[in-house]
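INFO  loader      accepted 1 record
INFO  loader      residues=329
INFO  predictor   begin
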Amino acid sequence: MKNKTVFSIGEFGLIEIIKRTFSKLNNNKNIVAGIGDDCFCFKSGMDTICITKDMLVEDIHFKRDWITSKELGQKAIEVNISDIAAMGNVKPEYAFIGLGIPSDTSKKFATDLANGFKTVCDKYNMTVAGGDTVKSNKIIISVSLVGITKNNIVKRTGAKPGDLIGITNTFGDSGAGINLLYKYGQKHKYSKAERSLINRQNNPKARLNESQKIAKYLTSLTDASDGLYVSIGLLAKESGLGADIYIDKIPLSSTIKKVFNKEKKCLDFALFGGEDYELVFTMPKSKAKIVQKIVPEVTYIGEINPSKKVRYFKNGKEEKIKYLGFKHF
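INFO  predictor   done
INFO  writer      dumping tokens
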């Protein structure tokens, strides 16, 4: 038998290898959330410390002529804030930045990148506390972020049968934006609506404020960095349960519907596009009204069940959904 490649097992197969290799970590009584959740969380005195790491790699996550260096710096911090938001009512405190950069990169690019880091750090009242810089053939930004809370965190594993599945805002704009960039490039003459979709890709906004407000009502939580389809699957699988999703309830922006007037195309972006960085969560039905009152942009799109299968319905009929999203390997 030939040795399997990382391509054959995929990103989540690779994560499973790492989880199994360090499975003894689960015996540490101070660990609250281990490998596989949005953050690694552990108890330290009265506090819970949440740590996450995310990377942006040139020609994988971005192309240099598609995004300004300041936007790139902002995005690098913001996507890590989104992981902190995915743990509930947590305050981000410190960022550590690993930066691989070609030696011929302009000083202006580096300055604007640093200003992008600072803009988002100032927004969340946090600081860059250290990191490392190395020469590389392409730009690589690896951010580690530390958050602190005295509250209970919300993991991916707490969903219960009968819980509602909720999401914030709309889905698909970011995936639609990157689709436009791949199709036409940055120099194309885009409409105002198309530029808005590209902006959702280049300037994501973490839902930290919303998460902090509603965390105490939730049973499980993640952020939709890899798309709605993947996020729903993670919450169901990690909780050992299944879900029924009503496709016609997934909220789409008027902008994406204007640019891509075919409903299936818009829904494909919503399910598989990725990088929306919205919250995906479960909660008891009894808390639905109060959560929607606190965050009016919340929409309930389904329900958790004990089946261990995720099923999708449209107009009352089950539809078979095949994954069409991005794969790292």
